[in-house]
Design brief:
By secondary structure, the protein is an all-alpha fold. The protein is built from eight helices and no strands.
Length: about 210
């Protein structure tokens, strides 16, 4: 790929990616399975997009990180449309693996750690000036903390806004340990990506010697 083409892709990637996600979000905003749950689930999207937009002039992620963030938001948008416990892909997974419940919520929590570790690491590298190995594993702890924080916020919001939507919004499906399992899924996802980055870094060091 010549430099001119690469530069065009670099320039137009984010506008095209955001426009594509916006179109996807609008489609899934039409007739969601439960409008009340949809509104609660979309609080995360509104806050995330608001923070990214507000901080854009001071801190711009790489296109790769923006792509990963949008990937996670797509997964969350699907969960918001159907409610997490009723996403068709989760039922397919349940039938295929003979699971006891719809595990789409667990997949998204795993993706939270697995997909978002790279953007979190990028923040620590560029803003906190952390060394690469430290940035990688600090990103793991940061995502684990955020996962725990979101579980607490979700429980509080559900009780304050619409207590009757608690089960649908939290997606517990009768599991009293659901929050802990969700946090564990996010931690496992983050650790896997951290290990992959660490191994890749070690291999690059060996190849340069």
């Amino acid at each position: 790929m010549n430099p001119a083409t690469a530069r065009k892709i670099d320039i137009y990637f984010l506008p095209v990616a955001v426009a594509s996600y916006l179109a996807f979000w609008i489609v899934l905003a039409i007739r969601p399975l439960d409008r009340g749950d949809w509104l609660l689930e979309n609080l995360l999207i509104f806050i995330s997009v608001g923070v990214l937009g507000f901080t854009y002039r001071k801190f711009q992620f790489s296109n790769f990180s923006y792509g990963l963030i949008l990937m996670f938001l797509v997964l969350h948008t699907i969960g918001a449309h159907y409610t997490y416990a009723k996403v068709p892909a989760g039922f397919w997974l349940q039938e295929w693996l003979h699971l006891s419940r719809n595990h789409y919520d667990r997949v998204v929590h795993f993706a939270f750690g697995f997909v978002l570790l790279f953007p979190m690491r990028e923040v620590l590298l560029r803003s906190a000036k952390a060394h690469a190995p430290w940035a990688t594993w600090l990103a793991v702890t940061a995502l684990a903390a955020l996962s725990s924080f979101f579980e607490i916020v979700e429980a509080v919001v559900a009780q304050i806004v619409r207590p009757e939507l608690g089960a649908a919004y939290l997606g517990t499906q009768g599991d009293i340990w659901d929050a802990q399992k969700d946090m564990a899924a996010a931690l496992v996802g983050a650790v896997l990506t951290a290990c992959w980055l660490s191994v890749g870094s070690q291999q690059r060091k060996r190849s340069t010697k």
